[in-house]
Amino acid sequence: MTPPGRKPLHGEDGFALIEVLVSALILAIAAGAILSLLQATTRSAAAERQHTEAYSLAQEDQARLRSLRLSTLNRISVENPSLSEHKYTLNGTVFTVKSEGAFINNSTRQPAGCTSGKTSADYVQITSTVSWSGHQPVTVQSIVSPSNGSLDPKHGTLVVTATKVGPLPLAGLGLKGSGPGTFSGTTDSSGCANFTDLPAGNYEVTPSGTGLVGLDGLPPHAEKAGVSEGTTSTLTLQYDYGASIPVEFEYAAGGGVFKPAKLDSVFASNTSGTGSYWSPGKTRVLNFTASPLYPFSSGDSIWAGSCKGNNPKVSTGIATYTFKSGEVATQPLHLKVPALELTVKNGSANVSGATITITDEVCTEPVERTYVSESAGHQSSSTIGTPEYGLPFGKYKVCASASYSGTLHRVRESGVAVESYTAPTVKTLSLPSTGSETGSTKTCP
Q: In CATH, what class is 340-438?
């Protein structure tokens, strides 16, 4: 600035303006710093308030949990989700409160979990966790000791462990139990479900889960379990998500030629389990999808038929496949089968319209397949259908019956072997002319 009484020199023009601008800049910087400090202070105060509110909610949840029954507290987050998670809005902030409870063994300081024996449940550890956006959650823990006599010494604990291929834990498996007492719940992330303070005795435990299949090829079904006084008993379940695969059939027509065949079942075998799979309605079809199959890591051997007795024990009739959990295969398995070429005759004439039954004799529960003879006397689905020669490997009881001249005529034969993959087994059933039955006295259906 030019001193009083002196005219500004020629080079000093505009200095006053520059000084004003510099002063304004310094003021702006100072104001920005003050504003940032105020904002930081405000945020800190808001965060402190939210933390205080979260801690208060956690303490309130602890008080709520202490008012519940011990049986409700144990595994509350798994078995009682409506009691274990709540949302609250305070001063515009949404807080989520999650509650957990688990029986703890005093000697190990660990949950009375997936081990058998005398691992007692001494107290319940309750945990309240409060979370909100953009901040670390607040967690408060405490214990609830059972009052004298609240846990009956004549009661016990049942631990259910569920695994799938690996073995890996199977989480989320639903469980319901009935017997001297009742219980329900689901397996946790470790595949474990702990049911404490159960009256001793025998229980039926029913698992449930969408898309699951057991080692036997069946969906989850009831299992037996026992609970002993003062100890922890275990029940181990094995399920996984079932796979599916299309299958189609070919019968040995002779001379190394195989033609499309209609069949109704396949059998999957593994060292750890087996299972039979049927077409819809157990009807004979050229192809269908076998499902659900347990995804054994060692793979399956698959053949046509409904039992182990249909195993041809030769590679021609067996397909192998290793399924993945939940897999939906698109490429079909081609299964070759032997053939039985039946002809129903009355003297030298072929009989059309005769009822033919072919009964599998190698299965524990024999499978009876019913046909009608077509114009050439061969087994078919109708009098105008094409012959259906293909059959699973095995031995069969065959029977034919027809009415003519007002009399029912029948013929039967047992032990017919259908076991060749090079040419059909050829068999003629000659109906008696007098109306009596040859062979067994048992009639055909």
A: mainly beta
Q: How far apart are the first and last CA of the chain?
A: 125
CA proximity to 438, closest of 244, 385, 429: 429
Residue 69, burial from CB neighbour count under 10 angstroms (0-12, 13-18, 19+): exposed
The verdict on domain 158-239 having CATH code 2.60.40.1120 is: yes
- Tokens 């003297």, residue? 347
Helix (H) or strand (E) holding 65: helix 15-66
E-strand stretches of 317-430: 319-321, 333-337, 340-346, 349-350, 355-360, 368-373, 379-380, 394-404, 407-418, 425-430
pTM for the whole thing?
Answer: 0.67
- Give the burial class of 259: count Cβ atoms within 10 A of its Cβ; 0-12 exposed, 13-18 middle, 19 or more buried: middle
Q: What residue segments make up the domains of the chain, in order of their start?
A: 16-151, 158-239, 243-337, 340-438
Which amino acid type is present at position 211? G
Tell me the residue length of the chain.
445
Residue 113 pLDDT greater than 80, yes or no? no
The answer to whether the beta carbons of residues 418 and 310 sit under 8 Å apart is no
Write the pLDDT tens digit of every residue in 276-285.
999 999 999 9
Question: What is the fold, at CATH topology level, of the domain defined by 243-337?
Answer: Immunoglobulin-like (2.60.40)
